[in-house]
Design brief:
Number of strands: 8
Shape: globular
Structural class: alpha/beta
Number of helices: 8
Helix content: 25-40%
Number of domains: 2
Strand content: 15-25%
Amino acid sequence: MDVSMLDSEPIIDGQHPLAWLAAQTRVVGTQLAPLVEASSSASAKAAAANLHVAHGTGVGIRLRQIDWTTIDPARLTTLLGDLGVAPNVVDVFVDFEGAEGAVIEVAVIAELTSLRALGPFRSITVGGAGFPDVNGVPRGTTEYPRDEWRIYSAVRAKLASMSQPTPDFFDNLVLKPDTIELGVDPRFISISAALRYTVTNDYLLAKGELFKGQGGSGKGGAALIPALDELTRHAEYATPVRSQADDWIEAVVAGSATPGNPGKWREWGTVRHIEVVAFQLSTLT
């Protein structure tokens, strides 16, 4: 769970938001390991260290490209010292962010080699945020490469061919964090109906007419129905695995389910993405 934005939140009942979130999940029987990075505040690092001491959670460390040991090895060793933890209780997340192409594949492999030389980390996971900026996309079904999955697959295949350990995989679901605009008031913007749909190596964006336009214009959820109908005829629809989202899509097209709103579309896009990625990871050889 990316909790980087919690650093700007106020203290809750005397606790850093990271500690508060972990406490709330323990109530329902879920143990979270805290995640920090070099740029995290001193209070976030302290909260992460305290959670590990109190509950033996270990600590997750996210390495953005600027933090990679092949670029600045001191950033990770300093952070380990700040947290007071040894590598064997640390889950490292190597984040290549929105990078793409063969050059980043080579860079990721070099970073993994460097990390293995630093110590026996509890786990090493590789990923990024490949979902594109979809502003200005025309109506219909548009294809985009899933760069983060393509890079991971290439890195994993290369390491396997050299009989080297292969990392786990993470992504940012159907979102690219650096395109989030927190200062925009949704009451004053036009919103197009769109569903983000994950397939084997690509993202499909099914875009309809305006859900909400200026001056009260827009068709509401009905604006998405023609786009969903077109999506069901795409060659990669319901591949590489059929998901719960496909049942919902077909029910909406048939008129037996309501199309909902942007929040519902993001929810179904996320469900679809998780089911596809889980299937892909479960079938890796």
